[in-house]
Amino acid sequence: MKKKLRLGMVGGGQGAFIGAVHRLSARMDDKYEFLAGCLSSTPEKAELSAKELGLDLTRSYPDYKTMAEQESQRDDGVEVVSIVTPNHMHAGPAIEFLNKGIHVICDKPMTATMDDANELMRAIKSSKAHFFLTHNYSGYPVIREMRSLVKNGELGNLRIVKGAYLQGWLGSKEEDSGSNKQAEWRTDPKRSGAAGAVGDIGSHTMHLLEFVTGLKCKSVAADLTTFVEGRKLDDDASIMIRMTENVKGNLSISQIATGQENNFTISIYGEKGALHWAQENPNYARFSRVGKADQIITRGGAIQNENSYAPIRIPPGHPEGYLEGFAQIYSDAADIILNHKNKNELLELLPGGDSGMQIMKFINASVKSSNNNSIWTDLSSI
Predict the structure, then answer these.
(1) CA–CA separation, 296 vs 301, rounded Å?
(2) Residue range 140-313+352-371 in CATH 3.40.50.720
(3) CATH class of 5-133
(4) Any alpha helices (H) in 58-90, and if so which ranges?
(5) ∠ CA(87), CA(255), CA(226), 5° rounding?
(6) What parts of the chain have a pLDDT lower than 70?
(7) Ranges in the chain annotated CATH 3.40.50.720
(8) What pLDDT digit, counting tens, does each position of 334-357 carry?
């Protein structure tokens, strides 16, 4: 019988969206067993949540510090913990568990503030345990195939990148409805951090462009806007970016784009070709090459590269997407923790502390730029 990693969770109780996503994804490849949790900051709600999930109530904890202390002392204590709280509660639990030698899988972005990010990085560097971020789109098979094509030089020298992430769900002041928990914390600077839309979905856009290209964002010129009256954080942004190797680009980020659902697209342009991908149809990408007909990349398609680490769970033509992207992060993290033969290659793929810090700098540089009449702002200044 293969070993399953013992998994705990902080956050993700009643009324939480992302906790269920993480639990489903962790189960998908049968590499984890969910055994313990601090599922809410309210002890009563944490216990009710544990009952609903069938969790042993002796391993339902009133706070994350108690959980870390007691689980680390058990012979059968959790080996990995998922952090699925609002942004302002990422650093504390992550640091606590890392200090106990327990691996951490954390929802993105890394933290709410740069101070917390710096403190967390210190804990990551001093811990023997691993830290992973669930930038789930980097787990999509077609995205990993695109990354391999770029890495293998199929596009030639890269020139420009384009990213857009358009949603419409915050077109009105949903945070005041009293029934939209997601809107409440995502628009609250105390819980979300310095940015709204840029931190929430702009972070995904920037991370994916860096993941596919292998480049890093160096500086930004950003125009962040809050269109909904009374809202405290940005709900729309236009951002020009300069990346390493003289690659230029721009991002269009919005959560008030009326009629849009989850319209996330990226394009990578090089001297010999280009790649285009859209999240709402994630099993396909278009590969354009100079002087040749366009080719469609599919899961398991003819041009799949070895070592792209783009595994196929179900036959091509049966859609895979959002949950499977999370599941791939969990599956790869398990292989790293269990010292799989491809551990080093997988460590290059999975978002961790360094990529988390890079995105934190991108978020805060964008805010700083916008607050200073959209002047070019180096990420190194953050």
Answers:
(1) 9
(2) no
(3) alpha beta
(4) 64-73
(5) 85
(6) 1, 302-303, 305, 307
(7) 5-133
(8) 999 998 888 999 999 999 999 999
